[in-house]
Amino acid sequence: MDKKEIDLRKELKKYFGFDQFKGLQEEVVTSIIENKNTFVIMPTGGGKSLCYQLPALIKDGTAIVISPLIALMKNQVDALRGISTHKGIAHVLNSSLTKSEVNQVKKDIESGITKLLYVAPESLIKEDYVDFLQDQKISFVAIDEAHCISEWGHDFRPEYRNLKHIIAKIRNVPIIALTATATEKVQEDILKNLGITEANTFKASFNRPNLFYDVRPKTDNVNSDIIRFVKQYQGKSGIIYCLSRKKVEEIAQVLQVNGIKAVPYHAGLDPKTRSKHQDMFLMEDVDVVVATIAFGMGIDKPDVRFVIHHDIPKSLESYYQETGRAGRDGGEGYCLAYYSYKDVEKLEKFTSGKPIAEQEIGLALLQEVIGYAETSISRRKYLLHYFGEEFDEVNGLGADMDDNVQNPKHKTEAKNDVKLLLETVRDTNQKYKLKEIVNTLIGKTNAMLKSHRTDTLPFFGKGKYKEDKYWTALIRQVLVERFIRKEIEQYGVMKLTEKGEDFIKNPTSFMMSEDHSYEVGEESIIVGSKSTAVIDELLMKMLKDLQKSVAKKLNVPPYVIFQEVSLEDMALKYPITIEELKSVHGVGEGKAKKYGKPFVELIAKYVEEHDILRPDDFIFKSTGENSSIKLFIIQNTDRKIPLHDIAKSKGISFDELIEELQQIVYMGTKVNIDYCIDELLDEEQQEEIFDYFMESKSDKIQDALDEFKGDYDETELRLMRIKFISKVAN
Q: Disulfide: which of 147, 287, 561, 622 matches 153 by Cβ 3.0-4.6 Å?
């Protein structure tokens, strides 16, 4: 190992407390330190930010970090200030700062204190900022979320297109572009647009072996399923993504009513509330954030244990990035998505008003999502193939971590069908996308096929012995096996690979998995097991409480003090001095000195006083499903508001309200309407009706009316049935 390598590791330990670099980090850091233009494609959780933070701390001058996410900038600045004695080591420069705050930032940059300056692309356009930065020593410019440059990226931002010219104005410094999701098409766009086609490119594996992928059919009981799932992760952090603000609010309320600490987060909330809700999540005052897919949340929280997609996202890049927020510390991460074709139709409608070119891009990206949701092959293999990476589904890391692998679908021999499919791609001169290939096989003509006279060729309709869905599924599986590929320049056009050409000449066995059919609600199975580490659970709990109280005092998120993996290491190693604390994973000298004292004191006291104890068992409670109107009814019956008033305030009839109440109790949620029944019936009458429902074989109101022969009217019996079901069944 040469001196530079030793020095880099020394710096890594000094600033971040790690003994080893992760993956490609060391090579990337070296490239940046050597002033080379650098392009980094590294998945969320791969340690991307360290790639530019460490060189910025080592090099002379200030590094400019361009990021579109204000929340993410704030988190990174907080974390960096946690490893230094000087607050000015990192700053954000944006429109939210006062004049005196801007002056302080400039002063810290001029005096050489600030090593990292985070800016949004919009802020860089301001002439006075550009003028100021021209006179400063800038070490390099890092462009985070670089996929925003490309129209084929999942989060295209027009202001990113100008960055090359703005950077050139500031100074001729190295450019480092970083992204967590980039297909080959997007990578090409980024390099061209920034003018760094010669950049050192580092592409880490997109495989996140600790994430479990699960796609379930979206039925009417989706809310109940979500609640049951979240209850399994009591006290742990999770994110739920929805397509609309209305759905975000509804799901957040459903969770709250069922005793889960949750808050909504979307662009429709005022900035103060949004910021408050984000801080509550980071400070662990709430467990779950429900957010819109469209709103980039930039929450750099390492211990998110699950990510749920209530609605399917617009692209696999979005899905990958959003699921990538789970398990960033290497711990458990469960990625659950609900899929129905209705959601796809909604997304298709969203794109219909856009320019044709945008529509085409949007629909092409959506087709990839459908393929992922409907496939029965390894989801990990499918996802990694999308990002241009091969995966060994037998021996690869995390190979068994998805629902398809744990519950494999029936496979059939498809050798002859694959041969016919590949011949069709070849004989149509490799100029068609998936839809045209399928139409050619089943003999269905359209304008494009007619214009090329494909419908007159002898092989047209040669595959009509199978349905279009079958051929679509086969194309997806053949793509993943790399017999065909999608052209980069004309995205989506199918081209034969060398492997595909060999298959035509020499066909071998090809076992095809039957695709999922989501038309009928299937039974969903919760798969995946919780990992249990051999740590002192009681001490871990005490350390987490201390972490939270220290964080509260300092008004920073708990993980800024110590990450969960560091606390787990403490609960394994029992360090009782600051020196010993430095040997804990993720604890550097600065952190040990700055935050370590109360932690080592607590551990020392614990070691002296306690044996290792088991934690209390988790208590599982039943849940129910509620829409927003049902939630409103539950909350108002809890407040003992007269039923007629509840109906009036919601603009529904009294009978409709009774219907809603019936649905609520039949779905398993308790409601208390005694205050209303007590005004109608005395204790004996209630007892009589209650006993009837207890003994009757039927809960039909007509049967009850026949039994009581006019002693009670329909409303009284309906209300008593609600009370009975609520008390006895729930």
A: 147
